[in-house]
Amino acid sequence: MPRPKTPLAKAKLTGAYSKHPERYRDIQEPEGLTALGEPPAYLSEPEKMAWATFADELPWLVSSDRALLESACRLRAGIQGGGDVTAAHIRELRMHLTALGGTPTSRHSVQIPEDEDENDPWAQFESQYG
């Protein structure tokens, strides 16, 4: 069974897109994906902290990843909370991380590009009047 295709956003962050653009030529990703946003209000404080940690660790996540991320936050908070943690809990969290592109083997290659000044209104103002 072949490996699933790397999401276009992740490919751009890791540099895979610039190395092999022909591999991503025919990928039709949804347009208008919105940012991940804040955690749902009904999550507990440890789960919200897990959300913030995931948002920092996996900057390519978008709003369509929220349901899976919510589940991963519950798992991470439960494991970090020191309750009864089984191998099944850890395995499930690993599966969530793999689905989100956050396993150590995929995270080590992610390089977040610096913000471009052309999209930064303050940088435009500063270059014009600074």
Automatic annotation (TrEMBL):
Region Disordered, residue ranges: 17-40, 100-130
Extent of Basic and acidic residues compositional bias: 19-28
Top-rank lineage group of the source organism: Bacteria
Name under which the protein is recorded: Terminase small subunit
